[in-house]
Protein 1
Amino acid sequence: MTNIPIDAIADIRSPEKPEDWRRFFGFSTDHKVIGIQYIVTSFLFFLIGGVLAMVIRGELITPESDLVDRTVYNSMFTMHGTIMLFLWTFPVLLGLSNYLVPLMIGARDMAFPRLNAVAFWMVPVFGIILMASFFVPGGSSQSGWWAYPPASLQNPTGNIVNGQFLWLLAVAISGVASIMGAINFVTTIFRMRTTGMTWFKMPVFVWAVLAAQIIQLFGLPALTAGAVMLLSDLTFGTSFFDPAKGGDPVLFQHFFWFYSHPAVYVIILPVFGIFSEIFPVYARKPLFGYKFVAVSSLIITGLSATVWVHHMFASGTPDWMRMFFMATSMLISVPTGIKVFAWVATIWGGKIKLNTPMLFGLGALVMFVFAGITGIMLAAVPVDIHVNNTYFVVGHFHYVIYGATVLGIYAALYHWFPKMTGRMYSEGLGKLHFILTFIGTNACFFPMHPLGLQGMPRRVASYDPEFAFWNVIASLGGFLLGISTLPFILNMVGSWVQGEKAPKNPWRAIGLEWLVSSPPSHENFEELPIVIAEPYGYGKDAPLVSNPDKLEIAHATN
Amino acid sequence: MQPTNTSIDSANPILEVAHEATHHDHQDNRMFGFVVFLLSESVIFLSFFAGYIVYKTTSLNWLPEGVTGLEVREPLISTIILVSSSFTIYVAEKFLHQKQLWGFRAFWLLTIAMGSYFLYGQAVEWSGLDFGFSDGVFGGSFYLLTGFHGLHVLTGVLLQSIMLVRSFFPNNYAKGEFGVESTSLFWHFVDVIWIALFMLIYVWQ
């Protein structure tokens, strides 16, 4: 803690001198450092989760179970899902939010910088706990990422410290860290906005982060409650979810999905925010229907608490519940549709610049629309009963999580890369990365839809040879996705080391973060900006702040 | 809390004004964040309550064999004492606002004593019960709910003890009373949860 004032003083006295790179490996309380720590850490776990996915696709390229043992296969899909959600999509989006929210609302840092750092450092801690579960007797959890009892209550080795125990421990720590983060974001957005930054002058990304973090606050505690009860069933012999002892396994499903369906919105809402930031910049037009896009995020937050039973249409759910949750689930498509309409209207007739972030943004939007259509199909009870637990579901949510979310994250990483590192990325490598990713995503995940409609169940290591054709294509697509990360890594590392120096605002974008140097100074703003205009004023030629020349000391001394 | 700001302020007078502004907001931010935390925490209890209601209304064998129900008299006394302690902690806070430290300490200590009595009563009750944590969903949910709440009471008592000790440091509360205010709010929260819990477990048998 004591090094912070020294850093700050050094930074103020010589604003030209770059900060020490070692701060990225320590307990920094700078939201920008923490943001990058989140992004880099989670990307490493993304690669690990990707390797597990390669194993799954390698197993499924032939109908027989021949690559790995069936129990290992169970471990692979369980840990793939867990890692990708809790150690990649959540933390990487927290990283982007951490980096961008204080800058976008004109604050020097988050409301609670130390809490922020503690919350980040819990990510590697529970990441290591989860990885350690591979090495305990009996191996890691094999009950899928949703850990349904009674499968998750089986403990064949009889050890207290088993794979499922460590899984629950990791998820619990992740939950605590996420709650800490959510408290920090909500407080920051409510109370740290600069002068003139009224609610309807906030960038949509900030609205989206607020909406997402509110979901964490009301959803995660429910999952925690379920996890505590599952843990005590597993460890202390209680019978909450054990049907053999009078427990109710479906109750766990309620607890689980009450959080874990809204969790999808925790993931996708910031991606909606990214779309809303990127499309106006590269179409050179104001965001269409800004207020509707902003408020629709909060409507999604509200509705997200009323849809979870659509995951349980086949769990002995009464008919009235099926009807109710079918209707609410379909209702979500209204605020989502408003957003899609607004993005299309923003792009329509714009001066479109197809650079890497825009390509990723458009690709992600197209795949999100596709995922939305299959989502509506799945919300309908008759369709859901037919394809429940088949590859159709897997295909649907991979279009959401990979097609829309991962591509959206890539778009954001390219778009803000110059701001974060002060360097430009390589456009050629970026476009190569986009082409490989776009083809790979569709090749890997589209075949899952026909497979599911034909009845191929998910989570199986072997299958009927009639499904072989689409599985081979999906596997080849999966391997292509693995390859597609190589140009990305090369681009990010190479450009950070020796890329062309980035100016303040390489994209001529409008936003507070683009008014300060790349990367911003430790304190972000020397004098806090005074906001006088709505965001996205493209083509309007109106200044965003009344004091643009006073935001940085470098200007005052020049 | 403020080493960062102080050292920057002393290094650069230009920043002083701006940092002064954030310094004043800081206290309010913490209270805002704490309220957000309590709202979130309440959902854990709501989830447990929901689970309890589901079990109570759907279980085929609700009470374990040989168990007829829960004794209400002693828990009711504990309840009255715990709820009353919400008033004593309020009086203690009033005294602190008026800078009357001894009045604050007296009522604060009374609150600690009442909270401790509640914990003692719970320990006595638990040791006299003839069912355990693993005796069906009734045993499980009884100990889970009362135990999780008891953990909160214990946390409250520990926080109160820290605040009591801190009141003996000179000028500790000169710059605001976030610790006392948040502890008090937490205590009210724990009380309200207990009332709901008492209704669910003891009244609705």
Protein 2
Amino acid sequence: MTRNLIIIALLIVSVLSGCKKSEEDRVRPVSLQLTLKAVEGDISFDVSKASIKITNRTTSGSYSAAGTATGKVSFASVTPGAYDVSATLVVSAQEYTQKTGVFTEEDITFNGAIERLDVSTDTEKQLDLVIGKVGNWVFKQIYYAGSDVTKGATFRDQFLEIYNNSNTVLYADSLYIGQVEGKNNNNSGQYFLPGSNQYDWSQSHDITVGAGMDANKDYVYANTVFMVPSDGTGKKYPVQPGQSIIIAATAVDHTASYTGNGNTSVVITDPSLTVNLSKADFETNLISYLGGTPYKYDIDNPNVTNMDVTYFISGNDMVLKANGRDAFILFKANPNLPAVKSLPTVATPDQREITAATKKMLQIPVSYIDDAVEVMHPTESQRVPKRLPTSLDAVRTFVPAGQYSSQSLVRKTLKTVNGRRILKDTNNSSEDFGYLNKADVSKSASSFID
Amino acid sequence: MRTAQAVPLIFTMRYFSLFILLICCSQAYAQRNYQSDSVLWSIAGEQKMQYLFGHSTLLQDTARQNFGDLTIYYDLKNRNYRTSQQAQKTAVAAFEARGVNYLSDKIIISGTFSYAKIWEDSLAYFLGGLDDNRIPGYFYTPKAGKFERQTYDAQAHLGYKINSPWQADLQANYTHHWSTRSVDPRMELYSMKFLLKPSLSYVSPNQQHFSLSGIWGYGRGQTDISYKNRKLNDGTALPEYHHFTSFGYGYTKELDSTALRQYDQYRGLELAGTWNQPSWTLYWSTSYLKRNNENTNDVRHRQHYQIKQTFNLDQIDLDLLFTDKRINNNLLRFNLKTANGHDGVYHRGKNYFLNQWNMALLYSKAFASGSSSRKEAGISVQGAYDKRDDALTEHLAVRRWIDVTVPLSWSKIGKSADRFRVQLSPSYKFALTNRLEVPDSQINAFTKGIAYPEFYYYDVDVFAIQTKLSYLTARIVKKSKMAFFVDFRFESAASSKQIVVGSQAFRGQNTNWRMGVNFYL
């Protein structure tokens, strides 16, 4: 009996003692400390009213914090990983005028952003907030997603709507739009910037950079540029304050079936998914520019003025990347700056042997640009490195339903003055834009977002 | 790194066929000399048979009488009070059989088999199979959907008396599970588990039994996620359709890979025995089982499997059953289970820690056992401690609860040997400790969707009552008896406490109906 009791006692002891589990090698969360600085020239601005947002790229969890007087913002416990960091500071027009002596009617927005910040260990990082360029011309609506590939028009119905956000009449003559080149994968390597994995353009073959300029921050590299034609007067295409122009890829009625070039039948089975662009203000048509057999979908609508092709390196038509791997720029020719056509061209830095067949991008100084918007894929894992500098667009945006969804990005209305809508332009697209479930070419109230 | 191994479905089917044959033989023999109904129509009898089939090496020297029963039932659950990872409605159609056959003085065979077809409705946040959320490396989605599941579970045991006092046994267990979900994101899951348990026993002349068993086994599983509507996976317009992978209790990844392969390895030891005295018997057992689990990516996207995460689980089980040999017998059963686990590899260290204790104590006393109006009464106390600790996301959940049940039973034997039985078991669950700690800067989709609702679930007391009516007769099937039963359980959770904005507490009453037929061979 004693033996049995001993056995049972041993069993109980073994159960109780077997439950202590080693916690050696326990990992721990990390901290992220940001130091915010908002400086213009020699003047520093108080960042205590800044708002900071960090987003974990793995979990999609977003966390916010407010600025402090010292500029130091701490996230004491975060999951290690890569983070997108952004900060916004709105300085009142009065404060800005007082500090700089430069009169402004509108509040000034400072933006700062870092993508893919590695926070695998306790991290301290300085985040510089800069004033973005605020132009009179802005992108109002960007329909890059296209519509359903079987029932809609795929990419053929894409368009850009450009808006006069000023209080004076502007002329669209010699207004440029372009698409910016960037890397379409997240691989790291010798010719790519550490962290973002974007091209390190400073390593491009034979690149020339102005004194004190940064190849990656002070230039963008366009693969496509179109221009609104001009008759020499510069006043052929007036756009009233609060009015817009639509530039279509192909200015036809996409809600109906039609015959394409070469008698190709283009069938639309669900007109509700797409738009009628037959009354667009301009269209891009490359038939004469490219020569050869006309691209079957690049229909030339004689009633719609064609854009001039300034620079175009590949493809058959203006095709906005429906998957969101694209960025768009908008600028007006400036007689005080070198002509656009005379700007240098460079190959991507990973191209080490330059031949006649090497595709090169137009190197455009940031100072040329009035407005820029970068889009991205809605799904984190499908995103590629950001291609616009922070001063042009601090944080990218997207339509939530993604490619071929019929959704369009629409710039939000900041306020309405005497019936004229002033659109929000803080150079932070994630804040400035909303979306419509279906692109709207009406230019009416339904095409705005309050 | 490891190379691909397919789930051995062919093996499954062969094993299944063999097992059915075994059960049939067992039942045929069983009919000769045993009336299983008399064993099972008492709390003590049912507890004893459950214990012996759980430790089949003890069957050789304890019962020495053939036994067999078979149950078919339909079960319907409606859960308003639940966690976010439980279905609101569950229907089960199941078949269960077990038997033991003493083929000779030396040879014994026994086995169990169960098949269950399960339909679940309104189940979200868990795209998994038989494992619950304590095992990391599973998919989940906020979108509720319908599931269909199927589980085969079989145990076969062969015992042989080599030479007094030695006895050898071999037990094999096989489980096969399949699940599918019919709403985006669609899930297809297969899993299998195979355990082999060879034993060597010493049986003293006065029938004291000591056995030592080794446990060896493996498991395989594959989960595939797909979207019929690709737009739900591409965009962010409908985030409730996104799928996540949970790597612990808080560490989660959105729209990760769409396939998971899991490899399990089981190793363990079990000691079991009986302590026989003239007036009482104590059955005892303790076991240690180590489960090593590996989560890997899908081979379709890579040349080799890359182990994403490992999880090591140590399980210890102590089970004691005391019965005396009076006519109005007393039964005492004590069971203690612990499970301790931690993950590895994925985070270059240990991130997720699991610590669980489950204790169950049952005392039951029979009254008027020699009469035609038999009664039983007892008390059952169950306690649990559950701690989930996710280091990287600083999620810490600790909960303790205790459940007190008073099982009561009354049987009436009629003139034609028909029996009628009423069972009533009121119970009350007390929430003793319930903590959830998450820093604001670590709140994520897992916290809101799973951790908060689970916190609300364990934060309240629950009253429950279970009734079961059974009627047994020998007048329907010749040479055999059958019983019809209806079982009903009602649960009511206490009123809600404070709820965090943006999260959901599932509260209300639960009901569970079960109707079925037993056949006693």
